Amino acid sequence: MIIELFGPPGAGKTTLLRGLCQGMAKQGINVKTVNGYRLIEYGSAQDDGPEVRHGIGRIGKKIATSAPVLLSTLPKDGVAARLLASIPLRSRTWSWRMKVDIAQLCESWRKAQESEGYFIFEEGLIQALCALVLLARSPSIDAVRDTLAFLPRPDVLIQIDAPQETLRRRLMDRHAAQPLIEVLLFELGVERGLKQASISREVGECLRQGGWPLIKVNGADSHDFDKIIKRILGEHVNETAVA
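User: That's the sequence. What structure does it adopt?
Assistant: Structure tokens below.
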């Protein structure tokens, strides 16, 4: 079973991920998580420790795994190549970075599809699509709809959003707490993060119109988080476990 989260930075994806992992762990269910470029790893999100967004070890791992992907030619009929071709980026640097991230993300998705068990993508293909639109040379909602026609669908897709001022406050707090090198390498900045919120909402509407298995969550309401976690565990996880 694949559960995918998407939404702007600061909306609460990591908080929801941890809640889902903890709820599944209490039921004795083993879950693996995937975050962006990182390949499948066992649920480190299950602990209650403070969030570590990147760290030097993860930065080193990303750099080490980038070169082989950058030097390779992606299969033209593969999801990664089609996604990158559908929404050309205005910056060559971002084109290289997104090639690495999306190629590795597609590999993680392939492994999850071919495996049994539960997988939660904190930043999956829909999140990558939103990032591409944000960085695109000429953003187009028609290109988004065309892309959704060939992207694989998860079993459950959760859209997390929050009011714009809540997102702004959270992003400012996040940037103030992070080392400069991590902000430069990984974060889009406060204003770009807020713009991605608008893009995520437009993509969410396209998903709804396309009949995707979409659930919306208010990232500013902890009670809504609890309600959604109970719903996922009751309607999807338990039914799948019984089947």
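The chain is about 60% helix and 10% strand.
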